[in-house]
DNA sequence: GGGACGGCAGACATCGATGTCATACTGCTG
DNA sequence: CAGCAGTATGACATCGATGTCTGCCGTCCC
């Protein structure tokens, strides 16, 4: 349309203020309600009237005010909130991507927020989202406790927990098979003949980490192995600390012959530490990652996109009226051997 | 609080319906307006009254209806929309993360949507966001043309383009120094003595790719090199095609001695193709990526988080009333030598 | 003692849409 | 031609909050 001049003076709509349906109606010479009917394709609008209204709307650049509509229609938006850690962590972004795709199927829109792994911030984000009247809230909780969340669930806004279970089984959850995954990793290394196996884990107070650690330990016990005990390192929370930790482990005497890292960050750190090492220990990492195939890193893989998808599915079922008891979906894991985990002990 | 029984019968609020301020006011025995004042910490509320209102709100589990508030306060939300490609691409998730952090400083909330690299879907997402009355829209456009977007900019909702410039200079934009980056890569390889340099590029119709290709070509011309010409491959759009393309290049006679890939996806493909190769060509990739240091891949790096941050900053300035002409921020690039780009020709 | 003023509270309009109900008009039927 | 069904339209209330305006009371001061 009118390409020559910027839209500036084209219409006398007050600057920066969007036209309302009332203005459209006035321009078309019909009542507010008729304009509404016309634009919503409701029945009983004369064809000529409809055309006039649409033209007027076009001319004014009218855009429906979704906020007003939502208020009238029941004060509930088409938004679904996700509260998680930083999206630069591929685990979270994969989850978000899975959620987003599934929600779109149902005409819902994802709103994301980063809790910075801080429980207090998380709580205020939950509050902000509830004020916005999101239809559901998906949370990868940061802290240990989140009772405060469950209460809301009973008040009408469905909650879905990802990766970490709710304190009481009062909300839907999608979890990774941490126990199975860690056991598989442990057994994989044991089967390769390793005994002195180092475990590098993140904050032990987080449920998934706890589960991976415990399951690893249980597998060692079951195999009658005690030689791993000097090599347990937990509460390693970032890439740099992981790198340092692995370096330190490799200077012990006797040296561990294998390392199991319990999430993608720690695996990255371990890879840095092992880089250029002439005689690296075996390595298995929890979480698959991009280019693991190129580097040749053996991992305990799981489908994080599917995780997001399942969470969105559960939420959508609740939104659609499902009232049954809380459900838990478990995402399975697989060990993918790529070389690093198959190096023999020495 | 009351831990024993689920919240079910605690209050007689109709199931699933959240209490309104009117109900709070009734329970506290004050008028609607007084309740509003009390909960908003407005002056001129007797202390006892305030306490009664807050208690009532607590008891009912009252939560402000943000939709209604937004309608009343000016029909504009605290949301900022981002439309980009799939968040599993680390470039997009880094950008999103930068945006999110910056917005939070200003009390704004990010809403993301994936355009699936499809122009039509993108347009309808823009529409949906505008209906939701977002305060600003940040877009990594998918298609070639996006005139339709600029129009809106003049109507009050600020647009910021990321990575790809608007057709006409009518909106703010944050771009990468594609020309400088590609030239630096080209010169780096030329300086290493390479002449038969392959270029593997994504869809040439996209502006950033176009710029990288052209700049590479210009650098070759400037160096009086023509030997690269048989090795130009464009419109390689996914990882697998990139892998195949590089494999094919390596079977040519004479073989190229170096490869320049123009984005992270293509670099991934190239790395797959080169994996296990006994005598790999030199490789430089546009976009830094996780573990590039471990693999030893030389890249043209840029700060994508900063890119998001800048975009959010520009948007926020517009939201705050800045009315000046469209601005463009350019994100600089650096070549980071890590080995792969320093392999000599042979 | 009267007026000014500040603190507190409520009535009412309002934001921009949609739902309900009433009304005017048309054309058809018996 | 009365009666009635069906279409097209509009007036008005409504969603849940906030802004404006008004009124009441007590206190302070001259």
Automatic annotation (TrEMBL), chains A, B:
It holds the Pfam family LacI. GO terms for molecular function: DNA-binding transcription factor activity; transcription cis-regulatory region binding. Keywords: DNA-binding, Transcription, Transcription regulation. It comes from the Bacteria. Residues 19-73 form the HTH lacI-type domain. PANTHER family: HTH-TYPE TRANSCRIPTIONAL REGULATOR GALS (PTHR30146:SF109), LACI-RELATED TRANSCRIPTIONAL REPRESSOR (PTHR30146). This is LacI family transcriptional regulator.
